[in-house]
Amino acid sequence: MLIDDNRLKQFRNFCEAKRGMESITSFYNYLRKFGRLSEHEFNEYLFPVIRVRKFAKRNIITEAGKTENYFNFIVKGLARKYYKRSRERNEEINTQISTENHIILSQESFHSRLPSEYVIEAIEPTILISIHYDDLEQLYARSHKMEHFGRLVITHAMVIKDRWQMQQVKMTPRERFLNFVTKNPELLQRVPQKYLASFLNIKPETFSRFKHMLRGHLKNTPVH
To answer: 9-140, superfamily in CATH?
Structure first.
């Protein structure tokens, strides 16, 4: 049975709208972890300022040297944040690798309105729920509750960042590796090894040795 162009277009638009609503629902559920938020409040205040943005693999989400204008929630995909320590050697230092249901943005640039020192790049095809800085400021001015939610989300992100930085100082490279792969086993398959090694502040050859050791351990572990 053949489908005419109009019906096919309508079907594609329906599927796109459905995916968009699923994306927005995941953001709503994320926010509800921080307090009571009714659907009415979400639809009145947040829905009008939400933008669904899509990036292909290796597309740049935030450019270094430009001001970060978007607060981003990852609905689907994977992104990294990095800066270049040595332009001559093109050395990239990864400071964040985030997947679904996490926040990613150049925070200092977003809040200070100064150019970002970081690049944010999609590692996989990525869908973001984004809110522009100007829209967020207007939202805070309209609603004390939305301002409170914003403060809770930002505080949560800062706590996670501080906790990670403390782990970088206190843990040995082996402990950092094991802690990370225990909590994020799927990322060993999804993220290039050089990005993970940089993120964990582990030399690439050491990371390879740990990975080989882990595979040997899993292979020799008896199945019950």
So the answer is: Jelly Rolls (2.60.120.10)
